[in-house]
Structure formats: structure tokens, C-alpha cells
Amino acid sequence: MTTILTKLSLALASTTLIVGGAPAMAKDMGKNPMVGGAAMYPTKDIIDNAVNSKDHTTLVAAVKAAGLVDTLKGAGPFTVFAPTNAAFAKLPAGTVDTLVKPENKAMLTKILTYHVVAGRMTAKDIAAKAKMNGGKAVLTTVQGESLTAWQKDGAWYLTDAKGGMSKITIANVMQSNGVIHVVDTVLMP
């Protein structure tokens, strides 16, 4: 009798978890935008989500070439400003092919880590930091140099160390180990 009650209790508990968990997952999915035609799951890490975005195949290949996969699968948290394939296509012809060569790993790593800020900074966090600093939020990247976030006509932009600008096109793609903000231009340290 005890064995039957134990099995019944376990079955009911697992049913409760499954049924109880479904609305939470659906609710979380409602918060995350689609990126590159793919669902982005807040329960997955930055890499596990990025590999599903058809708009980020170049970024994923570059992250692999730089040996940063394990880092971006780590606990973090990280804020990643993720350039799209179209952003990489804006670079001079041959730039990406040159950067992913093993002999250019240090330069590629420098560029990619310039797109990462330690901590989880949502759009609301960036806006609050900008408000406290006269409309501009200076963000220190993992690479060590700064990006400046600012708003114009309701859109948020980043200015890099070389004066280049990138628009945040999709904000707040929540990850288990941080947040991704999709950007339309590669940022240069």
C-alpha cells in the first residue's frame, strides 16, 4: 500500500510540475522576441539561442573561430550587443574572412569582446544609466574599452571607440546567462 501511495504521489507531483510549468514557459516566451525567425528561450544560454537565429550565422561562426563559445555558455551574466549577418556585410569586402583565420584570432577576439558588457543590462537599465548621466550611458566592455548608449527619436544607439554608430534593432532578448540586444552594425574598438 505504501509503495502504491508513493508512486501515486510521485505521479501527481510530476503532473503538477508539467502542467504548472507550461504556463510559465508560455509566459516567458511571450516576453522574448523572435530573432532571425527563431524563438529565443530565456531558459537557454546565449550560444544555445544564437545558433538558432538565421540572422546571426556570421556571429556564431566568429565566436567559434575566436574560441569564445565556452565563455558565452558560462554563468555570466553577460550583455551581448549581437551584430546581424547584415551588420557584418557592411564591413569592407574580405574583412570577415580575414578575421576568422587562426592568425587573426587575437583581433577577432578583441572585436567580439567589445560587443560584451559584464552583467545583465536590459534596455531599462541602459535607459536609467543614461538618464543619470545627461542622456548617455557609458558602458565598459569585457574588451576594456567603452561604448556609449544614447537615444534619438525613440531608438537606442551605440557609439564605438572609433565614432561608428550602431542601432539596437531588437532589445531585451533574455537568456539564462544574460541578455542579447541585436544591433545593425559591427562595433569597433
Major beta sheet, strand line-up: 2-1-7-6-5-4-3
- Poorly predicted runs are 1-30
Structural class: alpha+beta
Topology, number of strands = 7
The fraction of residues in strands falls at 15-25%
Compressed to H and E, one letter per element, the order equals HHHHEHHHEHEEEEE
| Biggest sheet layout | 7 strands, mixed
In short:
The protein has helices at 2-31, 46-50, 57-66, 69-73, 85-89, 95-99, 105-113, 123-132; strands at 78-83, 116-118, 136-140, 146-152, 155-159, 165-175, 178-183.
Which helices and strands occur, and which strands form pairs?
Blueprint: H1 2-31, H2 46-50, H3 57-66, H4 69-73, E1 78-83, H5 85-89, H6 95-99, H7 105-113, E2 116-118, H8 123-132, E3 136-140, E4 146-152, E5 155-159, E6 165-175, E7 178-183
Helix pairs in contact: 3-7
